[in-house]
Every structure is written in structure tokens, then in C-alpha cells.
Amino acid sequence: MEVLDIARWQFGITTVYHFMLVPLTLGLGMTIAIMQSIWVRTGDEKFLRMVKFWGKLYLINFILGVATGLVQEFQFGMAWSEYSRFVGDVFGAPLALEGLLAFFAESTFLGIWIFGWGRLRKSLHLAALWCAVVGSWASAYFIIVANSWMQHPVGVELVDGRPVMTDIWAVLTNSTALAAVTHTLFGALIVAGMFLIGISWYHLWQRRRDGIDTVVPVPPGERRAGLIRRLTDASTRVIVGEAPGVPGRDRADHGVWLWSLRFGAVMAIVAFAGTGLTGDWQAKLMYEQQPMKMASAEAACHTGSSFSILSLGDPGSTDCSDVVTLIEIPGALGFLATGEWGADMPGISDLEPQYQNQYGETIPDDELYGSFAGSEVQYVPPMWVTYWGFRLMIGLGGITAFGALVALWLTRGGTVPRSPWIMRLAILGILAPFAGNIAGWIFTEIGRQPFVVAPNPDPSGIDGVFMFTAAAVSPGVTAGEMLFSVITLTAVYAVLMVVELFLLVKYVRGGVASAMPELAPAHRDGDGGDDDASDDVDGDRDRRDDVLAFAY
């Protein structure tokens, strides 16, 4: 394999892994902040329990996210030094703002929140959490600003072959960035919503399995009048019980999981609507800024307005002659791209000659490109990746929203069905928005090829601000060195994944008691009592410091 191919695999593996952690951190942080706000306002214990439990999982994910994110910036210098030289004058500002402002604020206030339990007033403690959450969202914004400049370079001028920033405000308010950040944040809320649904469903199901909660039929005379009310009312209702001697398995525990499930379901549905609106905005921008990417995503080989629902072709080919459209909607593509039904959109066969005329048919004969110099430029990205990545992103989002609606319907009686298969499906549903986010990210990055910095086709843009991916890789790195780094990083990330899953599963199974040791009876040394009865789920026998127990 060429050094370039290995470098792209390395960045792809580390970025996709890191991005699995990012949306959960962004979405779950906002969720916990809302829960704690309700607790501070109402004093309801179940909301405190929710904050402690979901906060424990949030911290685990946050720590692993930081560990995996550090590798990203090191790769700019190790594997992509030429890219770093080209974009350095532009990337310096948003990356500095992310590291010195957003991440610093996020980590500082998160530390105050972790160790501030019982030491700060409730209002100040809550403010620290909100500052941490705002910091994490600001961090995401600055990172997306940098990435969006690669998709649509603005606010620069070309000096000695390198872009130099002339307008920081244009970079920060790049239309591509504004659309991408809102789309990403809504996607993160979907991830958090399904995370709440799956785990809460498991605990409600476990309470039913253990006989703590029972379900009885609702007498016909007690059902509400009216057709809509009869349709939406459950024919059964739950009788909430307690499990004496089991830490945290009381009536309040039922409220924790039921409220969390419904909150997650509503959030997932609302966020899906948000991703639809922002995704439409992004698609329209892509047709203007990166028409080849969107034409490839729609398998639009020829100029027209038909939207492909199902097209098939050779996965290894970028030749339109291999594409066969089986199902399409006439006129829909023009509406999606411009808002006008039936408007013609340029297809691959028309766009490719334009790219060749403007940027050349071959890679420039320059030592910077190494063995790629003089080779033919393939302006059509792998269509099977862009086409199916685009549809997976949308399809999995739709499945998530449908699953959230079903969850609301099935729990209208106050608990979940006793079927273990539905419980397993709810847990499996946690993966759907993760996969959808990853599919969308892969589509965005693969579709930009063969550019690492895509040209700005806007007539008011700066000519010459683009960079072929073949020129971005570090010239002094050998294929062997790159392969060693890929294998090493993949192995390290695999270990981190095992650690992440082990910790999450451990504390999920432990329930609220795993995050609140004070719910269990205190252990009394030397009293001859039953040690097992006083041990909490963590196995932590010292319950005097709830702050440290919660933090770690």
C-alpha cells in the first residue's frame, strides 16, 4: 500500500473511534444539566438520582473521549505535515480557541462540578455544570469551524501558494460551519436520547422480571371518555413496588427510569426533526459548494431532477456506466437542492469535465506529490460510500425517531412490556444513532476527495485555495512507519474500547446505587454482620466520601 492510503486509514480509524464518544458527551451533558436544573428547582429526589447515575456514565465517556482526541492533533504533524503547513495560518485561530478557551473552560468547570457536591451552593454547583456543557458545545463549534473551512475555504487570500487568514469573522461564520454544527448537535441529542431509552428500558424490564413492579388491567369504567383518550390510554397500569434490602430498588427508582426513558424519547424525536431541517440546509449548501459530492451521494450521473431511492452499481467503481437506477422520484432532487420542484441539477458526467478543465486532468508534476505526480485525478468519489453513507445517515435517523415514538406508546401504562426480546431491541437501538452519526461523518469526508481542502466554486471566492490529498501527507514518512503506527494505534484504541464498555456495563448494571453509595446501608467494621449486605455495587466499602465515589 502507498503511504497516502495508510495515512488515510490511520486518520479514519482514529477519527471514527473518537467521534463515537463525542456525540454522547455533547448530548448527555446537556441532558444532565437539564435534569439537575429540575432537581434544584423542585427538590425531587428522583432527579438527583438521575443526575448522579447519568453523570457517572457521562464522566466515563468524557475521559475516554479526551484520551482518544489527543491523538488527532499529533497526526497533523506526524502523518500530514504538508497539510499542516498549508492550513496552519487558518487553523491556528479556531484550534487555539478550542484548546485555550473552550476545552479549558469545559474541563475546569467539570472539575468544579465533580468535586463540588456538598461543598457549593446548589445554584453555583448547577452553574458550573452549565458552564462545562456550554464549553463542550463551544469546543465542538471551533473544531467544526476548522473542518468546515476545508469543505468551503473563506476569509483568506493566497500568499506564496499558501492561504493566509484575512477575515476571522468570515471563518467563524462560514455558512458551512453554521449548518454543520447545528446538525452535529442535534445528532448528539439523538444519541443521548436513545442512550437513555435503552438503559432505562433495561432497568424497568428488570424490575418487572424481579417482581418489584406488577401490571394490572384498568377497569373499563375508569378509562377516560373520548376517542383519542381511549386510543392513547393504556389498558393496564403499573403497581410500583420496592425490594427491601436491595440498595436503590425502591419506588423512587421506578420514577428515575420511567422519567429518563420518556425524556430521552421526546428529546430524540425533537432532535430528529432538527437534524432533518439542518440536513436540508447542508444539502443545499453542498450543491452550491461541492456539487460533485452531492451528485455522487445521489448517484446522479446525468443532469436532471430525479431523486434516486435505490441505485445499484459496482462498489469498486466510480464509472457512471456501472450505475443502474431502480427506483426514483421525478423532480424531487431539484426540490431538495434548491427548493424548486423539477429544477435540473448538474450530474457527474457534466461536472467531471468542469473539474478537469479548472483543476487539471492530472496531478501536477511536482516533487511534493511524490509517486502521485503526473497521475490522473479521480474527481468522482467512491459512489458506493457516498450513496449508501448518505442513506444510512438518514435511514438510521428515521429508525431512531420511530423507535422513540414506539417507546412512548409502549410505556404509556407506566412501565415496559415484559418481553425480553423488546428489551434487547431497545438496548440494540442505542447503536442506531451512533452508526448514523458515523455514516454521515464518513460521507462528508470521503465525498470531499480528491481534495483535502476543497476549492470554493463561488465566483467571489479566492482562486487557487485548494489542496489535493496526495500532497498533504508527510513526505519523510515511510510506508512501514505508517503501518506500524496504524497497527499500534488500532491496538491501543481496541484496549480503550474494552475499558470503556467494561466500565459502562458495570455501572449500568449497578443502577443508581452504583453512583450513589449512600443508598446502601453503611458498613460497620468488626460488628460481625453480613459484609455482603453492606457492600455496594462498586465494591467500595468506604461510603464516607460520596464525592470521590461519584467522581471515580
From TrEMBL:
Example GO biological process: aerobic electron transport chain
Location of this chain's protein in the cell: Cell membrane
Pfam families according to UniProt: Cyt_bd_oxida_I
Keyword Transferase carried by entry: no
This protein's UniProt keywords: Cell membrane, Electron transport, Heme, Iron, Membrane, Metal-binding, Transmembrane, Transmembrane helix, Transport
GO cellular component terms, semicolon-separated: cytochrome complex; plasma membrane
Listed InterPro entries: Cyt-d_ubiquinol_oxidase_su_1
Protein name: Cytochrome bd-I ubiquinol oxidase subunit 1 apoprotein
